[in-house]
Amino acid sequence: MRVLGLGGSHHDFSACLVEDGQVVSSVEEERLSRVKIAFGLGPRLQQCAAADYVLSDAGITIDDVDVVVANDFINPVYTLRYRDRVEWMGHHLAHAASTFYTSPFEQASVMVVDGVGSTIEKDGLLYGETVSHYTGGPDGLEYIGGRHGRITRRENRSDDPYEDSVGWMYETVSKLIGFIGPGGMGEPGKTMGLAPYGSPRYITAFEGLYRVTEGGFQQSTEQQIRLRELVSKELGHAAGPSERDQVRADFAHAVQHHVEHILVQLADWLHARTGSDDLCLAGGVALNSVANFKILQRTPFKRVHVVPAAGDAGTGLGAALHGYHALGDRKWIPADRPFSPYLGCEYSDEEIDRAIHEAPAPLRSVRPDDVYQRVAGEIAGGAVVGWFQGRSESGPRALGNRSILGDPRHAGMKDLINAKVKHREAFRPFAPVVLEKHQTEYFDSDVNAYYMLMVPQVLEDKRSVIPAVTHVDGTARLQTASWSLNPRLCELLSAFRDLTGVPVLLNTSFNDRDEPIVETPADAVRCFLNTRMDLLVLGDVIVSKGDPA
After folding, report:
1. Burial grade of 245 (CB within 10 A; 0-12, 13-18, 19 or more)
2. Same domain, 379 and 297
3. H or E stretch at 8
4. Rounded Cα gap, residues 229 and 236, in angstroms
5. At what angle are helices 240-274 and 221-237 packed, to 10 degrees?
6. Range of the domain at 384
7. Per-residue b/e over 218-230, b at no fewer than 16 CB within 10 Å?
8. Is residue 83 classed exposed, middle or buried when 0-12, 13-18 and 19+ CB atoms within 10 A define those classes?
9. φ, ψ (nearest 5 deg) of residue 435
């Protein structure tokens, strides 16, 4: 049975192909269009290029697909090509399917928290799902409760479009403190990174601006307006840029604190309802890796799984898996190995050579006998390296196949990459990737974090060893490198450890500011030439700038 899943909402579109229960491939539209979150594509959206990508990768056409599934909150333009054969499902159900059917759990509780999802009408008013709880087991997913927020756009409140949304609160604070991305959307990842620089002075002020209910979250339009007025007033009273920056950091700290508190309470309610030891998380709020780790620490759940594509792009994956298990009436049996996030196409040596040959500027290239030893030595010597390998990752985090790598031992490496390569704010932290067997030597967690969605503490005696990946509060957004998932990344880490004694590398996404992560060899070459990276590694080929030898 082949299922094509289409994902997204009004942004973050994607496609995924599942065959006989196995994910064959998955890709986000932004990687192909080169437009961040694929927002504002206009007529290009109906091309649904991601679907062509996954079908081509499998060597099939749409005629070989048994069913096409999409969530009913997606921009319908994205499904126009397949409108006569689409099976529709709920947005939060697609999120839930994406995380449960990629988990190692036979049975689990599932929690979905985002901005807003599928709508229902009640008493002439429109409500959108904001929090949803499910149980998952061999027979699939069952909804057990949640919250729908009132849609208020019809009241001409374009800045307050829906109530009772944790995602709305976090995104709105992000926008008010200056983090605004494509389409006017907030950039909550920046808020999460800024939060540790803040003080707790606004934490109390938030306490009357929402209420956590039994399995839900309530925030009225009036409370939303008061929240906006509070942030705007405090920013307006700030005397000068330095004080204004501190106010921004303090509000980031406050909203992060409260979202952690809210999610822990919601998870506690869900555990009390189900008694399960295992929890699956999805929805855009589940990309808050700091909060995810707090849920693991502070609730009775013993294991937590977060799908790597937890945001709206992951609904394509969820739709395809739902089509196989629910519509195809197939029992759920968890795999005996972690879910692989490496679901994009793999590019041939010929395509790599062509990208180098057709580069808009001269490049040198060499295939060393031992690429890992050579690259490890370059990184240890201070080089910033673009690392392009195998199949691209699913989700917003680079996990070692489309990564920029650096030496975590040099404190100045963080500022260097932020300023000269990524061209982004100086406060933004970078993630460490560590060999699985050495994780507990450096981090205060024995929980594997394959998808960079947990933030533990760096052990105190190791913070001076890996300062470039230790955040200001002593934490790190950890990635665990597994031989079963990414042997080439582990080979490089092993070579770096043999050379330096440190089994950790700095890992950030292979892209410049405001562009998607690179997908093709040609994308990688362009990004390499447009930034101050020192080396580019495409498979086994090491590329440097300058006239060919």
Report:
1. middle
2. no
3. none
4. 10
5. 150
6. 349-545
7. ebbbebbeebbeb
8. exposed
9. -60, 135
Task: Please list, in sequence order, all residues whose beta carbon lies within 8 angstroms of the beta carbon of residue 268, skipping any fewer than 6 positions away.
Answer: 299, 300
Catalytic residue numbers read 11
Residue 287: inside a domain: yes
Q: Which of 303, 324, 359 is the last residue of a domain?
A: 303
Residue type (1 letter), 288: N
| Domain of residue 236, CATH code | 3.30.420
Q: Does any domain span residue 137? A: no
Distance CA 493, CA 246 (A): 38
* Same-domain pairing of 70 and 43: yes
- Residue 526 and residue 533: Cα distance in Å, rounded? 11
Please tell me whether residues 531 and 399 are part of one structural domain. Answer: yes
Q: What is the pLDDT of residue 72?
A: 97
Closest by alpha carbon to 400, among 529, 507, 254? 507
The whole-number pLDDT of residue 467 equals 98
Q: Say how far apart CA 400 and CA 451 lie, in whole Å.
A: 10
**Number of domains the chain contains:** 3
Cα 324 from chain centroid? 24
167 falls within a domain: yes
Kindly state whether residues 363 and 509 are assigned to the same domain. Answer: yes
* Residues 374 and 537 sit within 8 Å (Cβ to Cβ): no
Q: Is residue 267 located within the same domain as residue 170?
A: yes
| Residue 298 region by backbone torsions, left for phi larger than 0, else alpha for psi between -120 and 50, else beta | alpha
Residue 115 lies in a domain: no
The angle subtended at Cα 311 by Cα 310 and Cα 316, nearest 5°, is: 85
Q: Which amino acid is at 463?
A: R
Q: Residue 209 in contact with residue 157, Cβ under 8 Å?
A: no
Mean pLDDT, all residues of the chain: 96
At 201 the pLDDT is: 97
| Burial of 415 per CB tally in 10 Å (0-12, 13-18, 19+) | exposed
Q: For the chain, which ranges sit under pLDDT 50?
A: 549
